[in-house]
Amino acid sequence: MTLDLNPFFFKGGSVGCLLIHGGTGSPPEMRGMGEYLAGKGLTVLGVRLAGHGTTPEDLATKSWRDLIASAEEGLSRLQAQCYHVFVAGLSLGGLITLYLAAHHPIQGAIVMSAPAYIKDWRLRLLPVLKLFIKWFHSSGELDLTDPEAGQRVFFYRRIPTAFRAGPHLHLAGAGAPPQPGRTAAARGAPEPGAGRGASAHHAGRSRPHHPPGERPVHLRPRRLSR
């Protein structure tokens, strides 16, 4: 089975969702969720983070800022087309989701299996170890209950030592605080000073009303079977 490692996009209504895969992973791991949301009428974009879905050598040249830039580019694309935009991320993608929620006006954040903080004294040695140990080799074992899920996942077995914890250390726990005036917008509440006749602005542009005849989408939470 040949996986398409490129970003995916499903055109839907005025509610959008940005999907962000995990570290060393790729967009296919989020495609199943994307197809489900698209089936509910959402516009869905699954981004590919910088250095992912290419080669380990390419990933070795990327910093956490490059990963953020990939997600921000996808967010801007969705915000140009949708009235409401949600962001969902897995693992490292979840940390990037929280970063976006702190720095951009989004309607909501869905964070899956993201570390709140990393507490390991060995991580302090990385600045020195990466000079001598260039690569970390993964066993390639997957902890998945679905036997067919492994066919829909692509990730690197050889990981740059500098990447092993670099982005997580920058994004976990410490993430930058929300910018003034952004917190209310991220929750969908009016920003201070936005009266009834005021125009709401989103990412530097005027936000339109819902298109005529288009109804808002409501997603009902479901318990996942193990």
Task: Explain the overall architecture.
By secondary structure, this protein is of the alpha/beta class. It has one domain (8-190): Alpha/Beta hydrolase fold, catalytic domain (Rossmann fold). Helix content is 29%, strand content 16%. The protein has helices spanning 28-39, 56-59, 64-79, 92-103, 126-132, 161-171, 183-186, and strands at residues 8-10, 15-20, 43-47, 84-90, 108-112, 135-137, 158-160, 201-202, 205-206. It has a 5-stranded mixed sheet with strand order 1-3-2-4-5, with helices on both faces. Helix 4 links the parallel strand 4 (84-90) and strand 5 (108-112). Helix 3 crosses helix 4 (92-103) and helix 5 runs antiparallel to helix 6. It is globular, with a radius of gyration of 19 Å. 33% of the residues are buried. Residues 174-226 have low confidence and may be disordered.
Layout of SSEs?
Elements: E1 8-10, E2 15-20, H1 28-39, E3 43-47, H2 56-59, H3 64-79, E4 84-90, H4 92-103, E5 108-112, H5 126-132, E6 135-137, E7 158-160, H6 161-171, H7 183-186, E8 201-202, E9 205-206
Parallel strand pairs: 2-3, 2-4, 4-5
Antiparallel strand pairs: 1-3, 6-7, 8-9
Helix pairs in contact: 3-4, 5-6
